[in-house]
Amino acid sequence: MIMNYISIKNHQTIPVSTIPITGYESFFELNTGFIFDHPERHCVNYFGYDVDNQVKLICCVADDDTHEIFVSGCMVDRGAKLNSFTFKQLCFEKYEREIHENFGIDYIDHPWLKPVRFASNRSDKSQIVANYPFFAIESEELHEVGVGPIHAGVIEPGHFRFICNGEQILHLEIQLGYQHRGIEQLFREKKTMLQRATLAENIAGDTVVGHTTAFSYLWESLCGFEASPDIHFSRLIALELERIAIHTGDLSAICTDIAYQLGSSVFGRLRTPIINFLQEWGGNRLAKGLIRPGRNQFPFSPELAKRLKEVFDVFEPDFDEMSRELTKLPSVLSRFERTGVVSMEDVLNIGAVGMAARMGGSNRDIRVSHPYGLYPGLDHKPIIKHHGDVYSRVQIRKQEVKQSMKYLRQLMEDAPLQIAPDTRLENPKPDSFTLSLVEGWRGEICHCAITDAKGELVIYKIKDPSFHNWLALALAVRNNEISDFPICNKSFNLSYCGHDL
Questions:
Q1: Hey, which residues does 160 pair with through a beta bridge?
Q2: Closest listed residue to residue 401, CA positions, set 204, 246, 196
Q3: What is the percent of the chain with per-residue pLDDT over 90, rounded to a whole number?
Q4: Side-chain half-sphere of 119: how many Cα atoms within 13 Å?
Q5: Are 72 and 27 in contact (CB under 8 A)?
Q6: Which of 72, 96, 124, 416 is the most exposed place for a label (fewest CB within 10 A)?
Q7: Terminal Cα-to-Cα distance of the chain (whole angstroms)
Q8: pLDDT digits over 76-116, tens only?
Q9: Which of 95, 116, 137 marks a domain boundary?
Q10: 35 with 89: CB under 8 angstroms?
Q11: CATH code of the domain containing 51
Q12: What single string gives the DSSP state of each residue in 84-150?
C-alpha cells in the first residue's frame, strides 16, 4: 500500500523528496481525516512555497499519543480555487487564510477568508490594514467599540473591534498585521548562523529562549549535530526560568487589571530576581545571546546552581504567600471564576495549544507529547484544568511556576560537568526538510525549514502559539461584559509580534 504521508519525530531531518506528493483531493481527505474525531491530533504547521511556477503545500499533523508527526504534500496552481480544510475542521482556518493571502489561492467554502498578516509579498496588494473587512451586525440596539491599534502604555499594536449590546460583548474580532517584519524572509536572506540566531531571539521578546531553542534544535538536526548533555541542560534551565518569569509577571498584570494593588506589586517584584539571574548567567535579562546552535554559550556552572537555589529560597515563600492571598479573596475570585470561559469543544475545534488548551482539559504539552532534550527524564505531568476560565488560567500559571522550580532544583543536583567543544554549523543538509517543536511558556512553538540542492534555505516557517490562540481570546469574551476584556486578554497574554512575524 502506498502511503500518502511520511511519519517523523520531533527534530528529525528527512530528504524533502520522501514527503509524498498527492493530488489535492487526496491531500484534503488525508489531513482532515487525521483530525476528525481524534482529539489527540492537531495541525502544527500548514504552509506553501513556490516551486516551478506552482505552490507546494506542506501539512504537518502531530499525534500527541504516538509522538508522531504526519507530513504530506500537494502541488497546486497560484490562484487555484479549492475546497477548504476549514469547512470540515475549523483548526485549519488561519493556515488557509495565510495561504490565500500569500498565493491568491481561493478557498471557495472557507467561512472567514480574509487577510492574516498583510505581508509585503502578499498576492493582493490592494488588501491593506486600513480596509480590513470587519464583521458587522446592523441593529439599532447594538453598538461597536474599537480599541487600538495604538494602546495606552507599552504594548504592541493590534485592533480589537467589539460588537456589544449595552455592556455585553456579542462578538470580538481581532485584527493584527500592523508590524509585519518579514522575519521568515530574513531567515533566507541572512546567511550566517549568528544572524539567524539573532533573528530567532527577536521573533517575540517575551519568548527569547523558546524561539531560539526551537531554531537551535532545528539547525542542529539540519546539520547532523547531536547536542551534548550540558547543552540540553542549559536549554532546559533557560526554558523553565523563562516560564517562571513570564508567568509571575502575568500574575502581576492580572492583579493590576482587577485593581488588586498588593498582588500587582508583589508578583511584579518577584519577577525581577528571576530575570536578573538570567542577566547574571548570560548578560541579558531577556536571555538574548544565551542559546546558540552547536555550543553552550554560557555553561551552567556549580556556582550558578548555588546562586539560583538562593534566588529560589527567597522567591518561593513570598510567591506561595501571595498566591494563597490571591486565591482566597472573594473579591478576586468573583472576577476570576466563570469569566472568559472557553469550552473544551472550542479548544479542540480551534486547535488551541499550551495553556489555552490545558485550561479546558486537553493534555497538550510538547514536553510530553513530543519530548526533547532532558525532558523525558523529568517524568513531566502537565498541569490540567477543566473550567476554561480566567481562574483556570491563573491556576495553571501559579502551579507551573511551582512545578518549574521543582524541576530546576532537581536538575541542579546532578548538573553535567563535561562541556562540549564549540561546533560551527554552517553546512545544512541539501534537499532536506526539518521540523522542530518546543514547549514555550505560552505553548507550542513550531519551526520548519526546507533546503535546496546547495543546502540554502528555500523556506523557513515559524509558528508562535499565539497563531492558534488569538481566536480563543475572541471566543472567551463572548457574553462577558466589556469591562472584563482586560482581564481576559491578560489571562492569555498573547503575542502580537509572534503572530505578525
A1: 147, 174
A2: 246
A3: 82
A4: 19
A5: yes
A6: 124
A7: 40
A8: 999 899 999 999 999 999 999 999 999 999 999 999 899 99
A9: 116
A10: yes
A11: 3.30.460.80
A12: -STTT-GGGHHHHHHHHHHH--EETT-TT---SS--TT-S-TT--GGG--------TT-EEEEE-SS
Total domain count, the chain: 2
Q: What is the pLDDT of residue 413?
A: 84
Domain boundary among 67, 94, 116: 116
CATH no. for residue 212? Answer: 1.10.645.10
Strand pairing report for 432-439 and 13-15: antiparallel
Claim to verify: residue 110 and residue 190 sit in the same structural domain: no
**Residue with cell string 509522538:** 67
State the residue for C-alpha cell 539571574. Answer: 277
- Whether residue 436 sits in one domain with residue 294: yes
Residue 381 has which C-alpha cell?
505531568
170, part of any domain = no
Query: What is the C-alpha separation between 341 and 169, in angstroms, rounded?
Result: 13
Look up the domain containing 355 and give its range. Answer: 183-500
The three cell numbers of residue 125 are 496588494
Cα separation of 366 and 368, whole Å? Answer: 5
Helix axis angle for 208-222 and 229-257, nearest 10°, is 150
Distance separating alpha carbons of residues 217 and 225, to the nearest angstrom: 9
pLDDT at 427: 84
Place 181 in a pLDDT band, splitting at 50, 70 and 90: confident
